[in-house]
């Protein structure tokens, strides 16, 4: 079994709402499941920091 670790990050209320909307629209069972999916997808895109929009 894979060893698990936790990631705790602060995010804005707006981002939380967008994640929750994404989760419900795509019928993920849990918020964590949707966030893991999105993180894995984003990492596969291999973005470069200079291509990222400023926050």
Describe this structure in words.
The chain has 55 residues and is mainly α. Helices cover 49% and strands 0% of the residues. The mean pLDDT is 91.
Overview in brief:
The protein is mainly α. Helices cover 49% and strands 0% of the residues. The model has no long low-confidence stretch (mean pLDDT 91).
The low-pLDDT segments are none
**Main beta-sheet annotation:** none
Order of helices and strands: HH
- Report how far apart the termini are: 37 Å
Shape: globular
How many β-strand runs? 0
Structural class: mainly alpha
Radius of gyration, whole Å:
13 Å
How do the helices and strands line up, and which of them pair or pack?
Layout: H1 13-25, H2 31-44
Helix pairs in contact: 1-2
Keywords:
55 residues, mainly alpha, globular
């Amino acid at each position: 079994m894979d060893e698990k670790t936790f990631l705790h990050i602060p995010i804005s209320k707006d981002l939380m709402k967008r994640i929750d909307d994404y989760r419900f629209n795509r019928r993920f069972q849990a918020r964590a499941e949707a966030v893991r999916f999105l993180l894995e997808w984003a990492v596969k895109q291999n973005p470069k920091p200079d291509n990222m929009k400023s926050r």
